[in-house]
Amino acid sequence: MASQLSREWAGIKQFPSATQTKLLELLGKLKQENVTTLTILVMGKGGVGKSSTVNSIIGERVAAVSAFQSEGLRPIMCSRTLAGFTLNIIDTPGLVEGGYVNEHALEIIKRFLLNKTIDILLYVDRLDAYRVDNLDRQVVKAITDSFGKRIWQRGLVVLTHAQLSPPDGLNYDDFFTKRSEALLKVIRLGARIKKQEFQDSAIPVVLIENSGRCHTNESGEKILPNGIAWIPNLVEIITDVVSNGSKAIVVDQKLIEGPNPNERGKFLIPFIIAFQYFFVVKRIQGAIRDDLSKETKPLWELRDMGLAKRKF
After folding, report:
1. 16, 69, 136, 227 - which has most CB atoms within 10 Å?
2. How far is CA 152 from CA 202, 214, 247, 261, in A?
3. Would the pTM count as exceeding 0.85?
4. Coil, strand, or helix at residue 123?
5. How far apart are CA 231 and CA 235, in angstroms?
6. 282-306 pLDDT per residue, tens
7. How far apart are CA 118 and CA 110, in angstroms?
8. How far apart are CA 103 and CA 117, in angstroms?
9. b/e per residue 40-64 (b: at least 16 CB within 10 A)
């Protein structure tokens, strides 16, 4: 399996000093909460900017990105350490091939993640994708079926290509809101999360821009159209999700293989037996007793009991 050994996080020094300061502050906050290892799983369809996002967070080119080549067929894990803290980011192949969910790619991802703990899921899509459809829902369902509904309690939606001009003269904030709402609805339906449950633990939506045309502020930080420095903003929201009280996802053999169909419904067996006894067996026994009590006894039996006169 393609993975990389953990080494010192040198890429953080490539960020502007303001970004470095904020990142160190956020990592320090996690360490205060006894979180010394953070594993981020990056998933989504192909061509949405997953690998570019991994490179942006690390500050190094650790995942291959090319507009003219298909994505890698296997996941890669990049591990970096800094002052006693370990950051793992797992890049994965796209989950769609030929207009359908790529079950083979999903199986490879699950096997790669065996015995690993997922602290954060980054579900990556593009801001400039103007609609959602049933395929989006199928991708979300596939992720949910693989890792359980709880994965979304540790999830963020990341929308790439944020440096865009909305179509038809729409206001940028309005376009972002509509795009977010449409995608979140698909996630709720695909993951089969109840509406109230979904509202109680809303999934954050984060904008990012990986391209070199991303604007910068006077400190040299990459910023969104609203002026927010997006790298520290993304890491801050990741920190908030880690601290929301939900449990990380441990990928064990049971999770990968799914529920055993032979075990399904076993807890109902005692109730079924009790139901059969009280509502079937007992009724049959009662009916038999009633029939016996009403049955006309033969003359020889009555004679033996002294209830019939003997004829001489």
Report:
1. 136
2. 9, 29, 11, 25
3. no
4. strand
5. 6
6. 677 776 777 666 666 566 565 666 6
7. 11
8. 22
9. bbbbbbeebbbbbbbbbbbbbebbe
